[in-house]
Design brief:
By secondary structure, the chain is an alpha+beta fold. It is built from 3 helices and 9 strands. The chain has 2 domains: 55 residues; 129 residues, Immunoglobulin-like (Sandwich). The strands form 2 sheets. A 5-stranded mixed beta sheet has the order 2-9-8-4-5, with no helix packed on it. The protein has a 4-stranded antiparallel beta sheet with strand order 1-3-7-6, with no helix packed on it. It binds copper (II) ion.
């Protein structure tokens, strides 16, 4: 009886271990470890580039930055920068350019090592020093190198990542439920055997 109980517990543990091994890649989205500017910061000099850095290398399959974007806007919704991004290891960057003093938002989007798109936004304040260079904003999103407008939209429009995340959650949730049911059935059978 103890043996059957131990077997059931062992089977459950093995199932959980297998589940974790299978489920881990689905959760391995890159996450932000650093950015320029930092969220909530006030900058008085424009850095050379705006950038976001994640915990691991990024997936630039095409080599052309497809799926990657950094978009900087001011409080009035004007866009700054040329819309071009460069991807090196775990960092996405774009040339920094800012207009009048005020609140700004940097929207970023990138492709995780596991192929999923991740995006977010970083708010910061621009308080230029007297001799800081400023530039005029644009009412339309910048179009790196003048690509077709449609292609531009696909690279700069933040992708709704809730679909991908939801499918991850559902998949992991149903896998956990299946393992729990299997474990309970095994324990139930073992207990009935013991009573018999
Ligand atoms: Cu993922």
């Amino acid at each position: 009886m103890l043996a059957s109980r131990a077997r059931a517990a062992g089977a459950l543990a093995a199932a959980v271990a297998l589940l974790l091994a299978v489920a881990t890649p689905a959760q391995a989205h890159n996450y932000l470890v650093a950015s320029t500017p930092e969220a909530g910061s006030t900058i008085t000099e424009a850095p050379e580039t705006f950038s976001v850095t994640t915990n691991e290398a990024l997936l630039d399959l095409s080599g052309g930055g497809s799926g990657f974007a950094i978009e900087v806007t001011d409080a009035a919704g004007l866009y700054y920068g040329d819309g071009c991004v460069s991807i090196v290891d775990s960092t996405v960057s774009t040339g920094a350019s800012l207009g009048d003093a005020g609140d700004y938002r940097m929207l970023w989007q990138l492709v995780s090592a596991d192929g999923h798109t991740v995006s977010g936004e970083i708010d910061f304040t621009w308080a230029p020093s007297a001799n800081a260079a400023t530039s005029a904003g644009s009412s339309t999103p910048p179009n790196c190198g003048g690509e077709a407008a449609a292609a531009q939209e696909s690279t700069t429009a933040p992708v709704n990542r809730s679909d991908a995340n939801l499918s991850d959650v559902l998949w992991i949730g149903s896998a956990i439920a299946a393992v729990l049911v299997a474990g309970l059935v095994t324990l139930f059978v073992a207990t009935r055997r013991r009573k018999a």
